[in-house]
Amino acid sequence: MPVLRQDPLTGEWVIIATERARRPETFARKKNEEDHYKLNSREAKCPFCPGNEHLTPPEVLVYHPEHAGLAYAGSPGTAAGTSPHTSSRAGYAAAMEESGGNGAAWAVRVIPNKFPALERNESIKWDADLFDRCGYFQSYQGYGVHEVIIETPVHNRHLGDLEEGELSLVLRSFADRTIALGEDPHLRYVQIFRNHRREAGASIEHPHCQLLGLPYIPPLLEKEYTRAHAYYLERGRCLLCTLLEEEEKDGSRIVLENDSYVAYIPFAASLPFSTLIVPREHSSSLETNRQGWEEKLAPLLREFLVNLSERLEDPPYNMYLHTAPLRSQSLPYYHWHLALIPKLTIVAGWEMATGTYINVSQPEEAAQFLRS
Amino acid sequence: MPVLRQDPLTGEWVIIATERARRPETFARKKNEEDHYKLNSREAKCPFCPGNEHLTPPEVLVYHPEHAGLAYAGSPGTAAGTSPHTSSRAGYAAAMEESGGNGAAWAVRVIPNKFPALERNESIKWDADLFDRCGYFQSYQGYGVHEVIIETPVHNRHLGDLEEGELSLVLRSFADRTIALGEDPHLRYVQIFRNHRREAGASIEHPHCQLLGLPYIPPLLEKEYTRAHAYYLERGRCLLCTLLEEEEKDGSRIVLENDSYVAYIPFAASLPFSTLIVPREHSSSLETNRQGWEEKLAPLLREFLVNLSERLEDPPYNMYLHTAPLRSQSLPYYHWHLALIPKLTIVAGWEMATGTYINVSQPEEAAQFLRS
Prior knowledge:
- Two copies of one chain form a homodimer.
- By secondary structure, chain A is an alpha+beta fold.
- In chain A, 26% of the residues lie in helices and 20% in strands.
- Chain A has helices at residues 84-98, 164-181, 219-235, 239-250, 293-312, 349-354, 363-371, and strands at 3-6, 13-16, 61-63, 108-112, 131-134, 137-141, 145-150, 189-196, 208-214, 254-257, 261-264, 275-279, 317-322, 337-342, 358-359.
- Chain A starts with a strand and ends with a helix.
């Protein structure tokens, strides 16, 4: 029998389509020519590669290798095609050398998007100009910030190929940029997300995340805040803290865990292998985290990405962060988390019409498959 | 400057990304080998083709050609590859002849889905069994109905290739099945949708729609009902009636109209060329429509689909119906409509994270392009 499951976080019902369910291994990607590993460690025309910094707007944040405790200088360079799992340092050095190998080497670089979806127009008079009438219809000037987080100088390394120190820096940039953008009182929320592979929306191969600073709270976040807040008023505690406890008690949907984080496929996962990574300790945003949060998250995230890549043949995926509104301090009812959603099925008429999903994979089976 | 526009129907903000906007013609599909016109009018292995009716569950509704005022018998058959725009009757006759050409010819056939997302389990005891606890988490037995509407016996004809009489029958089947399913008191809503081409989620080529009878109201519908109801309480009239008036006054986003229907790209369209087709006369559902509604809709829908196919090279698209809950009689605040959403961009991390869209096409430009 098919089953309807409710996601306690969003209130939405997901159809777990047992009659059309597919075994976990059937979701593995067919290997094709687009493999990252076949790309070079540096591409002459890539605007995100070292040596091409002049092709992008000036950076708003940069970390250097020493921030990650990395010592690359002098490592022998290697060419494309080697597995980054075993030779990421060498690949890094190769990219540095090709770009001139000068002292300006960076580990993570955050730049404004050259073709931004939103821009900060300093000339907006917020009282008058922002609210703009188009006849009957409402529109605002598209005030906001659109940035790109270049995760590594090495063109052909995935996020999951980064070493823990490097991955920590990427995560740290999420918090640093969020804190910096919080100083703009017109921004209400920072949305960080990542598209892996062209099929998941990545238009540039070089590994990167994107960040949008928004003058409004996006509707999915509003829904999560509203439900979590109602739960808090009724039960006096955080909904995601409760869910995490229940997931641990049940155990069947947990993929990975360490002493600070748990990765699990939610009970009412809307898409196959859709995973949340949640800090064990209650915290409503990256800004309110304890120091060292990113160093604890990096190994778990890395292991998850490596498993995902190995089990499903490096599938396309989207990743995003859900966190509290900017400048909200520590909220007792909201709990930040990362979501990782492999793109294995097509969003079609049903999803467009209803805003809900038919999941053709059993969450418990998918979790077991990723664990094994 | 980028612009934020609010959809009055859903309340959601859409970023109209002027800085990354694309000209309408850049969305045209590249022609490839998968063209429907290169398929045969009948495929021996297709379960939806005439002669293969035994491969599907027995039909729940069937219309015969005479329902559409069509006289096919004796027309000379033609082979695949001819344009259905000029020879649909001949193509129809060919499919009939290949299948034996007997008197059992049908025009539209509605069957239960062989691999249903939801099923009617007559053994459910609604008071006790429906609500099922999975530990802390909520789940229901997946009660419901999943049907397929086979739009034509001819394998290689699009919805937009059908003649007006045939298209009217497809539309009439939407109402007839909705009324029939309304007799099941456990169903709350009927969602009809269509996926055109594999890229938009169609796993079987033979032209068809799908229908799900649901024991709950889907969240996008709930949002539309709630906003429309609030507007009605405040202003004493239907929100979509107002929007239609305003769109007509403005005119720049209207694609097509006749005396009964208007097709327009909404002010805050979330995706390129996303179009609503709305009846001029207030009506909350197909069941409460005046007689003959489908005969007025068929020519407009057909013209829209032909234009879309010609201007954008037969793009993949999703189509769906938004209507009132089952058995709701005539609601003064809700107004049924069809939505047609070409699949021209990739839903990626931003959309998954926020539930909102960045539209890289200007609705006014897109409407003009489809009109011209």
